[in-house]
Amino acid sequence: METQDIEIIDSLSLKTLSIDVTEKIKDKYLHEFIRTNIFNSDILVSPNSKYYCRYLSQSLRYEIIVFDTNKSAAIIEPLAISNYYENNSSETTDLFVCSNYFCIYCKGELLLYKNISQVTTQDVQNYIQSSYKITLDNIIHLSQDELGKLKEKNTVKLLNDFEFTSIYEDNSYKFFQIFVLVCTIIFCYLFYTNSAGTNVISKQSSEVVALEKRYNNLLNSYQKNAQKPVDNTLELFKYLKLQKITIEYVNYKNNVIHTILTHKNKKTLLDFVSIQNENINIKSIKYHESKKVYKMEITIAL
Description:
Layout: E1 7-9, E2 15-20, H1 27-40, E3 49-56, E4 61-68, E5 74-76, H2 77-80, E6 93-97, E7 101-106, E8 109-115, H3 121-132, E9 138-141, H4 144-152, E10 165-166, H5 172-196, H6 198-222, H7 227-242, E11 246-253, E12 256-263, H8 266-275, E13 280-288, E14 293-301
Parallel strand pairs: 1-5, 6-9
Antiparallel strand pairs: 2-4, 3-4, 3-10, 6-7, 7-8, 11-12, 12-14, 13-14
């Protein structure tokens, strides 16, 4: 593979996310954990969205870099800095300061990346020490020319070191779009009807039915067997709305909804489970003291 075939994703296109945890997440749960946090953030994602993840044991934190690419041969710009270690020792923890970002390498591996704007090196050091408890061995300032030379070096070998993961897999993005579209329609419908009153509901019912029919036809054009999950989803979310249960996260794949629900009353959440007992699997239910609510993570087979 030629070097020019490899896409180097500019730092300006990278989005970052920090996730505090109490312990390291087991590998089998990590992907869904990261996806959930990305969806709950303000980062916009697409079918081409990927992420790069590192766990920082010193600060009990996951650092996520999110980017878009439709190429399998791609690396992010900060990773090109690893070419620095071709002629230098990699047994150190080094801070690299560039014009608009900094990154930390530990033993030759990219550990942390952050965008910066008009801050001093001392500010960066203080931030790293207070937020990440990382002890630095060296501070290296890279000019644009120096960074450009590192990017021009052999990037083919970097592909073996750079492991990134797609946020959406298979057709999950298509189903997620469908799911969000339908849920949005229903939420708007329920909000409007609850606000307008019974008389308006009866007058508007034919228009609502026609609207739902048009959208159902659209959904059918995407996936022949999508109608059954959609119909079941409508009923589930009508119940959630009536019970004032809040949806914090939702994902749809292979006729299974993965969602996180919150309510101040634990019994209300459990009652929701009981009406669909055969189809719902509770993954966790915890009380969050800061928000004074119960949070329940479940999967729903449609």
